[in-house]
Amino acid sequence: MSSTGGGDDDDGMGSQNPPDTSLPTSAAVNVTVDKATVTTELRTANPIAVTVTGAGGFHGDVTLAASMVDANGAALTGWTVNLVPAKVTLSENGTAAAMATVTIPSMSANLTGTLKVTSTSAATQGTTSASSALTAVDAITFPVKFDAATNGCIYPADGGTIANPVVIARTTKIRFFNTGTQDIVIHVNSASGGVPITHQGQAPGGQADPKTEANTAYEQTPIGPSPAGGTSWYCHDLGPDLKANNPRFNVL
Ligand SMILES: [Cu+2]
Q: How far is the CA of 107 from the centre of ligand 1 (A)?
């Protein structure tokens, strides 16, 4: 300590109080997620809430990053995560929220993945990262329902097109889930190359479940690949057949 008196410090920069941005050594940032585990399906978007909390007097910016990794910590091909926002600003000991949305592709070599959320800030203490373990059941669900206003079924907007069919692996169960109140029958277009799944109510695979009641699914696991051009489907009951604009998948 200097003995120069006068209340000045001896750093040559004149007397000063700590700047407003300084933090006590106890300052901490803690990151948590709302779901430690998630069980879902292929071809889904899964929102996972992230909470960032300051403690010990922390205030200021916290930069967030999110990634998807496999069991070995390597990047997970095809799985993506969108984190919004990527930076939050905490008031003293405050809390902020972010959302990490994990999108799982329709076909994936991995059925499990781990979301990792990490934070960077001026704090040197705290639990600065969090993770969530996601498991995708080997299934894809297409929601469909009868709409009285248009007197026909409403097909999923992202149900695939000729140019961009939903790509599905042979092992993956395909589910048509009736989100409406009226029974429907799923038509699967036959083609000279054969069909990977059976028209509902027909042989060989569709007779056990002749119609899709409300809040139930017509489920089939492919018996082979789609013919060239993929496989389109629509509501046999109660229509409409949109022909080239029917939803379309391609079982590989
Ligand atoms: Cu039909």
A: 27
Within this chain, domains 28-137 and 139-251 share the same CATH topology: yes
Residue 193 has pLDDT above 80, yes or no: no
- pLDDT, tens only, 43-66: 999 999 999 999 999 999 999 999
Ligand 1 centroid to 229 CA: how many Å? 19
Q: Cβ(136)–Cβ(112) under 8 Å?
A: yes
d(C-alpha 31, C-alpha 55), whole Å: 11
The pLDDT-based confidence of 10 (bands split at 50, 70, 90) is very low
CATH class, domain 28-137, is mainly beta
Task: Name the CATH topology of 139-251.
Answer: Immunoglobulin-like (2.60.40)
Structural domain boundaries of the chain? Answer: 28-137, 139-251
Q: Which residue has the tokens 């009868």?
A: 146
Give one DSSP letter per residue of 176-244, joined into a string: EEE-SSS-BEEEE---TT--SSPPTTSTTTSSSS-SB-TT-EEEE--SSPPPTT-EEEEEEET----GG
CA of 172 from ligand 1 middle (Å) equals: 22
- Residue 194: pLDDT band by 50, 70, 90 thresholds? low
- 118 and 129 Cβ atoms separated by less than 8 Å: yes
Taking CA 81 as the corner, what is the angle to CA 103 and CA 122, rounded to the nearest 5 degrees? 160
Q: How far is the CA of 212 from the centre of ligand 1 (A)?
A: 13
Measured in Å, residue 167 CA sits from the centre of ligand 1 at 22
pLDDT in tens, 207-227: 999 999 999 999 999 998 998
In angstroms, what is the span from residue 43 Cα to ligand 1's centroid? 26
